[in-house]
Design brief:
The protein is of the alpha/beta class. The protein has a seven-stranded mixed β-sheet, with helices on both faces. A four-stranded mixed β-sheet has the order 1-2-3-13. The longest helix has 24 residues. It is globular and about 70 Å long. The protein starts with 7 loop residues before the first helix and ends in an 8-residue tail after the last helix. Bound molecules: pyridoxal-5'-phosphate (PLP). Pyridoxal-5'-phosphate binds next to helix 6.
Length: 465
């Protein structure tokens, strides 16, 4: 369907090149233009309401409406100091306050914070920090980084290389050298017949150790990992996985970098995903819910050992020759700091803990549906994986685009979701109510029924399914 002449969708088709979009499709159909938001809802240019079941891009913890305190925080900051930078020992006052706050919130003792503008930039910067650290420590061969199949750590040249999704590499000439991918810890998909979750976790850890030994432990610097793998399909690690993986990393002096870009600030029912899964990272990256998605800001937190190595090498080299113009931007820092106060005053973490059982109960009601292979979730994040055959776990022909089609149908039902192959990710704003969670899953149920009817009509399912 082509966009209405002179509509914003038509202008979007004419002037805007989007990320993660089929450009030809957008040229023909125009974009989905959001004009305003309120609570968990957003509205298109015709005033139609949509429940955003992914909180934007897993970030709008406080929804899409104005939060007057955050507006005030930006205005007040712009009135006193709209910009300052962090080079050559300088900084804005509010940026220092945010750094202090984040160190206080850390799940394990952390020493310093470095600010960035996006999750990708934060992960890229960590790779440079790790190289700088090991060069400074006189072990220049200890540089390789381990990530995981299906990981998502961003899109810049190095962060895109860390990501473990084939489409992010194909035709971008990625990954760069020195990035290795170990197994994806998805028990439903990769567990063997008769294998328990614990045995699968042991197998993942053994495979990691084999990779380290085959490359040479002295060549491996760090492992990056999301506590819950988000954009790879909301993959929740099997029981005992992190204990076993961390034992291997500890044995070979390999740093653990927890990418808390989605999980951080309450998503899994603890402040950090690392706490939910018993991870003890040396370095953490965070973004998204740090500012409730309202301003671009990301951060890296590092422990004392990492900091000291960077400090000493910066001293040898006169300075740490890396920095970003908008690092710790005061307007973004002011919002992030105020967001932390709002989380505390409104008891957002407690709210997530109260809401999660209802959210997960509604999720599990789909487990018996003939099209649903797995329902997986923790806290307020989950995914539903669609399959052709529940018993054998056989998926649909990828050419059918079952996941994307379900998401398109859900859109028509006023629900925004994200497909990951034939899994559908759900991650609502953390301020959602029980009723809004019900509305989300009611809309999903209608979309699933329509998807099933479409697949039957087209002969892709047995008539009885
Ligand atoms: C876990 C994780 N890390 C990093 C990123 C990259 O963040 P950004 O899009 O801000 O660059 C994302 C984005 O979705 C993410 O989910």
């Amino acid at each position: 369907m082509s966009p209405r002449p002179n509509s914003l969708a038509a202008k979007d088709a004419a002037f805007h090149f989007h990320g993660y979009t089929n450009a030809l499709k957008n040229e023909k159909e125009g974009g989905f233009v959001v004009t305003r938001g309120k609570g968990v809802y957003v509205y298109d240019e015709d005033g139609k309401e949509y429940l955003d079941g992914l909180a934007g891009l897993w970030c709008c913890s406080l929804g899409f409406g104005e939060v007057p305190r955050l507006t005030q925080a930006v205005v007040a900051q712009m009135q006193v100091l709209p910009y300052y930078h962090t080079f050559t020992q300088k900084t804005a006052a509010v940026t220092v306050e945010l750094a202090e706050k984040l160190v206080a919130l850390a799940p394990v003792p952390m020493s310093k914070v470095y600010f960035c503008n996006s999750g990708s930039e934060a992960n890229d910067t960590v790779i440079k920090m790790v190289r700088y650290m090991n060069n400074g420590l006189g072990r220049p061969e200890k540089k390789k980084i381990i990530s995981r199949v299906k990981a998502y750590h961003g899109v810049t040249v190095a962060a895109g290389s860390l990501s473990g999704l084939p489409a992010m590499h194909k035709d971008f000439d990625l990954p760069i050298a020195g990035i290795l991918h170990t197994d994806c810890p998805h028990y439903y998909r990769f567990g063997k017949a008769g294998e328990t979750e614990e045995q699968f976790a042991t197998r993942c850890a053994e495979s990691l150790e084999r990779l380290i030994l085959s490359e040479g432990p002295d060549t491996i610097a760090a492992m990056f990992a999301e506590p819950v793998m988000g954009a790879g399909g909301v993959i929740i690690p099997p029981r005992t996985y992190w204990d076993k993986i961390q034992a291997v990393l500890g044995k070979y002096d390999i740093l653990l970098v927890a990418d808390e870009v989605i999980c951080g600030f309450g998503r899994t029912g603890n402040l950090w995903g690392s706490q939910t899964f018993g991870m003890k990272p040396d370095i953490m990256t965070m973004a998204k819910q740090l500012s409730a998605g309202f301003m671009p800001i990301a951060a890296i937190m590092m422990n004392e050992r990492v900091y000291k190595a960077l400090r000493d090498n910066s001293n040898k080299n006169v300075s740490f020759a890396h920095g970003i113009t908008y690092s710790g931007h005061p307007a973004s820092a002011a919002v992030a700091l105020e967001v932390q106060k709002i989380y505390e005053e409104r008891k957002i973490l407690e709210h997530v803990r109260e809401l999660a059982p209802h959210f997960l109960k509604r999720l599990r009601t789909f487990a018996d549906h003939p099209l649903v292979g797995e329902c997986r979730g923790v806290g307020l994040i989950c995914a539903i994986e669609l399959v052709k055959d529940k018993v054998t776990k056989q998926g649909f022909d990828p050419a059918l685009l079952v996941g994307p089609n379900l998401v398109r149908i859900a859109h028509d039902h006023g629900l925004i979701l994200r497909p990951v192959g034939d899994s559908v990710a759900i991650c609502p704003p953390m301020i959602a109510t029980d009723q809004e969670i019900d509305s989300l899953f009611d809309r999903f149920a209608r979309a699933l029924a329509d998807t099933q009817a479409w697949l039957k009509r087209e002969g892709h399912l047995p008539a009885a399914a």
